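Chains adopt folds. We examine one example:
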Amino acid sequence: MSLLGVQQIGYGSVSNKAKKAMRQTIRDWRMNWRSNRTLEEIATKVNPVIRGWINYYGRFYKSEMHEVLKHMNRALVRWVQCKYKKLKRHQRCATHWLGKIAKRETKMFTHWQWGITPPTG
């Protein structure tokens, strides 16, 4: 509450509508259908968009972006499961596999540089 008794709204925070639109954009990329691509190719495609979201929304209220960026990691895990037969039915193993890559190649994805990486196990 401010001195005037009006609740202040944080400027630059991410609205639920904006988060929903970002998650829909991630779904529209349909990464799990692109199992013929490499992780580097996916990174070059999505990094400019994610960097733009982080620069625009993450400037003032970074923690609001975590939900969307974790959704991006889940989409990458689904891609891993489609790409590699051994991990097809093992979501936790696919998450750990991707986490190991994130630990080794922290600059591959923009949100990994921000610290939003899959767990390594």
User: Anything to note?
Assistant: The helical segments are 16-28, 39-57, 66-83, 91-104, 110-113. Residues 16-113 form one domain.
